[in-house]
Amino acid sequence: MNGKHIELFLVDGVAGGLTTAEIAGWTGHLLAGPRAELARILARDEAQRNGTYILLGNDPGVTEQTRAYIGRTESFTTRFRDHDAKKDFWDRMVIMTAKDDAFNEGHWGYLEARLVEQARLAERCHLENGNTPQGRKLSEAQRSDMEAFFAQLQVILPVLGVNILRSRKTAIAATQEITPTTESPIFHLKLAKHHIDARSQVIDGEFLLLEGSRIAPRWMGKAGTEATQRSYASLQNTRNALVNDGSIHIDSGTGVATTTRDIPCSSPSQAGALAVGRACNGRTSWTWDGGTYADWEERGLTPQN
């Protein structure tokens, strides 16, 4: 795998403020910042260019606690003032432009459609876009250019903490089939007595409880200490939220619970707990043909004499 040289610049020298991001040798330029800095953002050169943007907000009641809106405009200054008046959910944003301003409205319309398509495919946010943008008709060469640009965005956006496009399922092109990306073996956690048959995988450093896993229909863990009670309450709340938003479907007839999408987890143990409905040591409970997850994690290490 080829490395990426990504340059981040903290405009004010502090994390969480205005930040620019670029990849060496790439024409793209990203500007990210909080809503509180909107006036300064709109005064910058980036806000005067054609491009696309993402508005982001936190909401505990939606998928992964993220709301998002994806748009395109020829004038960020006018567009963002309109959003500031009409959209209350967002508290941070990312503007995506090209340094040489080589792309026209058709290019950015195509990219907007691809961003919305991938965000819906990834299912990592509640997307506020009411309509599906229609991708512009571009020549074969122009589509190739924008697909390359889109691929770089999928690399650089997570560096800025924007994960709404991340998925093992990637829409390679509007007319092609979805192809999975693989970085680790698929791990299994099975409890035949409780009809549990869960699968997981590590993709780009994230531990995913995979779509189609059969998991415990309810939380069964019992806490003792106060710290354990807090931990269990957090896991149960997470599980309830996943049931409420449809990420976990419980069949009313059979009582079988199944994941309907890939669910990113903070650790193998969180994924294991969601699968079995109680506390779980994920490093030893998840297994593959070569042993446990811990064995895979420690692959290549030489024992010390």
What would you note in describing this structure?
- There is one protein chain.
- This protein is an alpha+beta fold and about 300 residues long.
- Helix content is about 30%, strand content about 25%.
- It has helices at about 40, 75-85, 105-120, 140-160, 225-245, 270-275, 280-285, 295, and strands at about 5-10, 20-25, 30-35, 50-60, 65-75, 90-100, 125, 170, 180, 185-190, 195-205, 205-210, 215, 250, 255-260, 265, 285-290, 290.
- It has a 7-stranded mixed β-sheet, covered by helices on one side. It has a 4-stranded antiparallel β-sheet with strand order 10-11-12-16, with helices on one face. A 3-stranded antiparallel β-sheet has the order 13-15-14.
- Strand 10 and strand 11 form a beta hairpin.
Entry summary:
This protein is α+β, with helices and mostly antiparallel strands. Helices cover 30% and strands 26% of the residues.
Briefly note the structural class of the backbone: alpha+beta
Contiguous low-pLDDT stretches (5 residues minimum) are 171-180
Give the proportion of residues in helices: 25-40%
Radius of gyration: 21 Å
Count of alpha/pi helices: 8
The general outline is elongated
Main sheet?
7 strands, mixed
- Assembly form of the protein: single chain
Arithmetic mean pLDDT: 87
Number of strands: 18
N/C terminus separation: 32 Å
Strands across the major sheet, in which order?
Answer: 1-2-3-6-4-5-7
Helix and strand pattern: EEEHEEHEHEHEEEEEEHEEEHHEEH
Strand content: 25-35%
Keywords:
elongated, 305 residues, 7-stranded mixed β-sheet, 4-stranded antiparallel β-sheet, 26% strand, alpha+beta, 8 helices
